[in-house]
Automatic annotation (TrEMBL):
It comes from Methanoculleus receptaculi. InterPro entries: RNA-binding_CRM (IPR001890), RNA-binding_domain (IPR051925), YhbY-like_sf (IPR035920). Signal peptide: none annotated. PROSITE patterns: CRM. GO terms for molecular function: RNA binding. The keyword Metal-binding does not apply. The keyword Metal-binding does not apply. Keywords: RNA-binding. This is YhbY family RNA-binding protein.
Amino acid sequence: MSRGSFQDLRPTVWIGKRGVTGVMIDEIQRQLKDRKVVKVRWLRNTEVDPVEVADVAGAILVEVRGRTLVLRERRVGRQD
């Protein structure tokens, strides 16, 4: 998937007023296994650290724009 095509990707995970929870991380990990790339959005009044979300989910942070981030699955045995 090219960088330009992330714009066409629809968010499949929404972070609400409770912020990033364990259930949310589990869902991100599940979707990464299925889709390889996941787009996440969050509410304006919610504090989210995209780098921390990627680290906790075991993913690679590809892009952050406004209140949207794109994560890619971390491939085993590959240095990303």
